[in-house]
Design goal:
heterodimer, A: 781 residues, Aldehyde Oxidoreductase, domain 3, Aldehyde Oxidoreductase, domain 4, 3 domains, B: Uridine Diphospho-n-acetylenolpyruvylglucosamine Reductase, domain 2, Uridine Diphospho-n-acetylenolpyruvylglucosamine Reductase, domain 3, Enolase-like, domain 1, four-stranded antiparallel β-sheet, globular
């Protein structure tokens, strides 16, 4: 490891432009003749569209055009799709209702797009949008997923009777029932996982540019995966064939999953650009973001966990209802199934597991993956249940977990996953030591003297990252493979460009990916550039989500570097008349081992491109590509401990310490990993303490601004104590596991376990607002 | 935001003239509520008449125990006034916890009082301090000024020019902030005058805006201590309920914040 290589705490290369306001985001893009779009959106949660009258709007100042859903349909633009097929337990395929980019018959949630107005300015477009008269016939509304399944409720899609999308199961129900029947103790709980708004700092945006001369489209958009966007817009939405569609995701200011999906707006902007003959730019305002960005979570689960007389878990049965909102978003079906129920074994050896999952349409915004995606739901369910069980069984939470830890690897769970490596005891020990778990009683007593209720809680999480082996996910219904690509171009002067299919929207790839190259060739970090986010520049790739860029994206870079290294050594050996196997690369030089003969890196590169003196038969140039398909998921795991003080008079919770002990395998840049953990913890604490999407009974969004949607702020959070241990991942060349989501996955149950410990009442749902904590604390008396 | 016309008034009379000439005019002071409302297209005044630069509405004067604060004085200036802090630190403390630094450098005491947001802090201070609201036409006691949610005694084109009050012997303000907006979910201003009269003013909790809690005032007049409030049960029937806090919880907060304010005074 050099000062800039693998494991080095290198400052982020991209921060200079971000911190000085020089980032270039979609809304910063401007092209000649560009006009501005505003969408006309449904004010009703469920209604028939009787008539769209744009005649007045078309005559307003600055208006270029007003387009509606009937025109979109007539032009053959396709329905939005869900890309992961799930079959119900009766064998039937999931029941997907039609999602039109612009609704022309029925609107199904507040914010559903009905028409687009294009004008010279945003203000004029907004004025004209208000003048579009849409006549609606209102329909009854259902918001709650459990209620939506009941007889007699409003029906969203004719394709899905009783609003049921699928009724899916995993695991062995008979064996699980047998275990529960034979158990010495069964813990039963109902677990609510609250609905969240993703809130990236940069709202979504799209700029659609149609070039009539070449019959070619360009789309600038806020995407975590521009190639997937191009594929889907081309193959399913009939916008344009792939060779006539360029998708560019420039700097993107956060995503948290919400920018994986292809939304109506980018499709409509591209189509509107062709229809109106001008480039069309749309930028979401914050209220639109609350209304239309895909939400996260919204599960209710009934759980039975069965123990034998030695407190070993012998069975786990879960019945989950998941709210998918008004339409099936791109990966919505995978989140409450294969990204969730396959992690229900947690860190524990559980011989029998059965989960049943019903997904449901409601008159709310679509729900899809949000930081963690399924794994936070599994972790919250398991770790709240473990805590409850420990209290019921009268054993310490640490002891109950220790008794049940998986201790030998590989470990096959009853729910598909095969864990490759881990040391859960090590994380537990590290966290308990850092938190001074054994000193808690004294701290509690001291707090009691000040009138405060102090509590402590832990959470032992596991997650699956590095998604995913393509054949495996294909067999489970995925519509795409989840490999990644890389190309390494060594320029004639020895500088290096790495083109990656991964996409950075805050993760720091421009630094960490360059560290791989600096490490391998001993060249300065400054001589390496990372290129991503443009389908015209970068070969097909699958993008960034599910903490996959390290384990999958970097592995592809490693494979390409292997090829570059092999060719570079051949060239150097030829130049120095040495044997290829004697060449070593150190500090920017290719050396003959054991001699003082060396060729500088740049000279080797120049030789590759002058091609005056290459080995016989060798092609000129130095550029290699690779595709990497992972052999398995990776399994980051860890233990989080949270300690709180609750003010019994107000119900206000103060987090007095938060300890995170994670095992991410090998680490490329510890500073960036710590940043990811800090951000993830803030997001998880936000879910547990503050955040929650509320609709009223008529489907109006009550939390449509920061006046009512509570985001975590610096003064809500303690100074985190983070540490890592390391069991290298055996299944990828770098031994890395992924760290982007762990904080958000592991922290909510630790916090709720701590608060319920403090107040002596286990009945508490997220977000644990002061009002709820106060009420629960008083109910406990 | 819809199109509007901006006027910077040079004097109170100039402001009134411009208002009377406007179609659907609005006075703007800090604009901390009005401008976001306009941006959301929920308000569309034809004219905005800015009061912030009128000299006669600026500044804080302390004369013995007597205090005058110009209506266009920012929260920051109230929070950081050494003269005011010497006689009435409670109002400085209150101003220092309004919004964030941006808001405190833009928002004004007159704007806050004229807007009478049910979760704003200043109305509680005005009521608690038995302040006099001075306008370009008259003087109104705070008790007669606040008239319900976003409603006041102000008439068309009337302008608050200053507030006046006598510094109390003891006073304090305690608020419990809404976790999202950080407005007062419940805020209580308590004050004990030199004559021993006690006032308890509550903001953020009342279904009709800021109000005085008579039972607490009587208890504290008899015994100025947090314990004096121990047996008082706050009636929740006229309190706000929303997704953040129901009326019963707010009733609890009224009592808890009142006790803490007395302890801090």
């Amino acid at each position: 490891m050099g000062v800039e290589g693998i494991g080095a705490r290198v400052a982020r290369k991209e921060d200079k432009r971000f911190l000085t306001g020089k980032g270039r985001y979609t809304d910063d893009m401007s092209v000649p003749g560009m006009k501005y779009a505003v969408f006309v959106r449904s004010p009703h949660a469920h209604a028939k569209i009787v008539k769209v009258d744009a005649s007045a709007a078309r005559g307003m100042p600055g208006v270029i055009g007003v387009l509606d859903g009937k025109q979109l349909l007539a032009d053959g633009i396709g329905n939005l799709i869900c890309g992961w097929m799930i079959h119900s337990k009766d064998g039937s395929p999931m029941k997907m209702g039609a999602w039109r980019p612009l609704a022309h018959e029925t609107v199904r949630y507040v914010g559903d797009a009905v028409a687009i107005v294009v004008a010279d300015s945003v203000a004029e477009a907004r004025d004209a949008a208000e003048a579009v008269v849409v006549e609606y016939r209102e329909l009854p509304v259902v918001i709650d997923a459990t209620r939506a399944l009941e007889a007699g409720q409003p029906q969203l899609h004719p394709e899905a009777p009783n609003n049921l999308i699928f009724d899916w199961q995993i695991g062995d129900e008979a064996a699980t029932d047998t275990a529960i029947a034979a158990a010495a103790h069964v813990t039963e709980v109902t677990i609510h996982n609250n609905r969240l708004s993703p809130n990236p700092m940069e709202p979504r945006a799209a700029l659609g540019i149609y070039d009539a001369g070449d019959d070619h489209y360009t789309c600038y958009t806020t995407s975590q995966n521009p190639h997937v966007a191009r594929l889907v817009m081309s193959a399913f939405y009939n916008v344009a064939p792939e060779n006539k569609l360029r998708v560019i995701a420039p700097d993107v200011g956060g995503g948290f999953g919400s920018k994986i999906y292809i939304y109506p707006e980018e499709i409509v902007c591209l189509w509107a650009s062709k229809r109106t003959g001008v480039p069309v730019k749309w930028t979401s305002d914050r209220t639109e973001a609350f209304l239309t960005d895909a939400h996260g979570r919204d599960h209710v689960s009934k759980v039975k966990m069965a123990f034998d007389a030695n407190n070993r878990i012998i069975g786990l049965k879960v019945d989950t209802v998941a709210n998918l909102g008004a339409y099936m978003s791109l990966f919505s079906s995978a989140v409450p199934t294969y990204l969730y129920a396959t992690l229900l074994s947690g860190q524990y050896a559980i011989p029998a597991i059965h989960a049943n999952v019903r997904t449901v349409y409601t008159n709310t915004a679509p729900v899809d993956a949000y930081r963690g995606a399924g794994r936070p739901e599994a972790t919250y369910l398991l770790e709240r249940t473990m805590e409850t069980a420990a209290r019921e069984l009268g054993v310490s939470p640490a002891e109950l977990r220790r008794v049940n830890f998986i201790r030998s690897f590989p470990h096959q769970t009853p729910v598909i996953m095969n864990y490759d490596a881990g040391d859960y005891e090590a994380s537990l020990e590290a966290a308990m030591k850092a938190a001074d778990w054994n000193g808690f009683a004294a701290r509690k007593a001291e707090a009691e003297r000040r009138g405060m209720k102090r509590g402590i809680g832990m959470s032992c999480y596991i997650e699956a990252c590095g998604i995913a082996p393509s054949a495996a996910v294909g067999s489970l219904g995925a519509g795409v493979g989840l490999w990644e690509s890389a190309e390494v171009r060594v320029n004639a002067v020895g500088t290096i460009e790495v083109l990656t299919g991964s996409h950075s929207h805050g993760q720091g790839h421009e630094t960490t990916f360059a560290q791989l190259v600096a490490d391998r060739f001993g060249v300065p970090l400054d001589s390496v550039n990372i290129v991503h986010g443009d389908t015209d520049k970068v070969q097909m790739g699958m993008g960034t989500y599910g903490s996959r860029s390290g384990a999958v994206g970097m592995s592809a870079v490693v494979k390409a570097l292997d090829k570059v290294e092999a060719k570079a050594k051949k060239i150097a050996a030829h130049l120095m008349e040495a044997d290829e196997s004697d060449i070593v690369i150190e500090n920017g030089e290719l050396k003959v081992a054991g001699t003082d003969k060396a060729v500088p890196w740049f000279q080797m590169a120049l030789a590759a491109y002058t091609a005056h003196n290459l080995p016989a038969g060798m092609e000129p140039g130095l550029k290699e590509g690779a595709f990497y398909d992972p052999a398995n998921f990776t399994f980051p795991a860890g233990c989080y401990i949270c300690e709180v003080e609750v003010d019994p008079d107000t119900g206000r919770t103060k987090i007095v310490q938060f300890v995170a002990a994670d095992d991410f395998g090998n680490i490329i840049n510890p500073m960036i990993v710590e940043g990811q953990v800090h951000g993830g913890l803030a997001q998880g604490i936000g879910q547990a303490l503050l955040e929650g999407v509320h609709y009223d009974a008529s489907g109006q969004l009550l939390t449509a601004s920061y006046m009512d949607y509570a985001m975590p702020r610096a003064d809500d959070l303690p100074s985190f104590q983070v540490s890592t241990s390391n069991t290298p991942c055996p299944n990828n060349p770098l031994g890395i596991k992924g760290c982007g989501e762990a904080g958000a996955i592991g922290s909510p149950p630790a916090l709720i376990n701590a608060i319920t410990d403090a107040i002596g009442n286990n009945a508490l749902t997220m977000p644990a607002t002061p009002q709820k904590v106060w009420a629960a604390a008083h109910a406990a008396k | 935001m819809y199109e509007t016309h901006y006027h910077r008034a040079s004097s109170v009379q100039d402001a009134v003239s411009r208002m009377e000439a406007a179609g659907e005019g609005k006075y703007v002071s800090g604009g901390m509520t009005l401008i976001p409302t306009m941006k959301q297209r929920l308000a569309s005044p034809s004219d905005l008449i800015d009061l912030r630069h009128i000299a006669e509405m600026q500044g804080i004067t302390v004369n013995g125990r007597s205090v005058r604060i110009g209506a266009a004085t920012t929260h920051y200036d109230v929070a950081s006034s050494a003269a005011l802090k010497a006689v009435c630190p409670a109002i400085c403390h209150l101003a220092s916890h309004i919004g964030d630094p941006h808001v405190r450098h833009m928002g004004t005491i007159g704007g806050s009082i004229a807007n009478n947001d049910p979760a704003a802090d200043y109305p509680a201070a005005m009521l608690g301090l038995a302040a006099t609201i001075v306008t370009n036409r008259r003087e109104v006691a705070a008790d007669d000024f606040f008239a319900g949610l976003f409603e006041t005694a102000l008439e068309d084109s009337e302008i608050i020019t200053a507030v006046r009050f006598d510094a109390p012997a003891k006073a304090a303000y305690q608020k419990f902030a809404n976790p999202a907006s950080r407005y007062a979910m419940t805020g209580v201003f308590v004050a004990k005058g030199d004559d021993g009269a006690v006032r308890v003013a509550v903001t953020g909790a009342g279904a009709n805006g800021v109000f005085r809690q008579a039972e607490m005032e009587a208890a504290l007049a008899a015994n100025w201590s947090p314990d004096a409030l121990a047996t008082i049960s706050v009636d929740a029937s006229d309190l706000l309920s929303d997704i953040h806090a129901d009326a019963a919880y707010r009733a609890n907060l009224v009592k808890v914040m009142a006790k803490r304010a007395v302890a801090a005074a």
